[in-house]
Amino acid sequence: MELSFNVTRIPSVFAIELAQEEAAPVEAPGRSVRTPLMVMAIVVVVWGMAPPITKLVSAPPLIGTFVRFAISAPILLLVLALRRRPLRRRIFLATALPGLSFGINLIFVFATLQEATVSVLSTISAMQPALVLLMAGRLFGERPSSRQLGFTMMGVCGAVGVVLGAGSELRTSWWGIGFALLSLMTFTSYFVLTRLARADGEVDAIEWMAGINIWAFLSTIPPVLILADGSDWSQFGGTDWLWISVIAVVTGLFGHVLMTWVHGHLEAARSSLYILTMHLVAVGLAWLIHGETITWVQALAGVVVLSSVGFVITSPTRHAAQ
To answer: What does each C-alpha distance from 106 to 81, 127, 261 come to in angstroms?
Structure first.
């Protein structure tokens, strides 16, 4: 793999320090971020659809994950072909680490659910904004204000309240906690590496996600060959094709391509917090689709999440303040 640090148009995954220097400062809320915020809102809705739709799939999660990427990767390559923009070798190589992280993340999600309840996984996953916030300064040159730090932590607590407010059972083994933490780390790795690649705005979002999905698909092949058997495959069929296709195309392709674009226009510390509102969408759709009751604790926690996001949206960055 040939790497050159003398050219400017390279995926920033290869040079963290270069990404820090070239990343354009995000301005105070105004017209410049209005469109990214609108796109971010679409991402939140689309990603929030995933949990309640996933519950409609009867096939084992590992099989569903394999089929999802088997659908999404060829579609993205077809889109690139229609745009007369094939996947370039350097982009394909640059997406290896974040793509494998993305695919392995879903494998750890599968492993977690074998050892722990969904509420355990969701609670640990809600810690991602705090984790990104710790890395924002060193990796992205972002300087979150004390107000943003406070409201981010408030948003994390609110998201945990949305998850646990339904009275979900917290049951897990030590393996379950370990797998959930690895799931958090691998998704954060995918999130951060994609943000680094988009720091200079030179990486095309669709081309980037095409590489990501190919590597993610490759990462699912070994566990499927080792762990899945004929009985697992026999459970996949019927309406599973419909719901997996919706997840692959709508939440997977559409949502992640939009999020990749957003990475080039919003601070990572802010966008990771905004993603927490997807839990509100998921709870609302679970009520409509599955008849799951929304408790007063969830409603109150939802207000906390929305309030924290609103306060962060309206607060200027330290770059702008200075």
So the answer is: 28, 17, 22
- What are the DSSP E strand ranges found in 99-215? none
CA distance 3 to 6: 9
What are phi and psi for residue 172, nearest 5 degrees? -160, 160
User: What is the rounded average pLDDT of the residues 11-39?
Assistant: 54
Mean pLDDT of the chain, nearest integer: 79
Identify the three-state secondary structure at position 24: coil
Rounded Cα distance, 48 and 56, in Å: 14
Give buried/exposed letters for 228-264 (b at 16+ CB in 10 A, else e): beeebeeebeeebeebbbbbbeebbbebbbbbbbbbb
**DSSP one-letter code for 322:** -
Closest to 166 in 3D by CA, of 122, 126, 110, 129: 122
pLDDT, tens digit (0-9, with 9 covering 90-100), for 38-82: 999 999 999 888 878 887 888 888 898 899 999 999 999 999 999
The fraction of the chain above a pLDDT of 90, given in percent, is: 24
Would you say residue 8 has pLDDT above 60? no
- Cβ atoms within 10 Å, residue 202: 14
Confidence of residue 21 (pLDDT cuts 50, 70, 90): very low
Q: In terms of residues, how long is the chain?
A: 322
Q: Tell me if 192 sits within 8 A of 139, measured CB to CB.
A: yes
pTM attached to this predicted model? 0.77
CB-based contacts of 154, cutoff 8 Å, min separation 6:
304, 307, 308
Residue 125, class by beta-carbon neighbours within 10 Å (0-12 exposed, 13-18 middle, 19+ buried)? buried
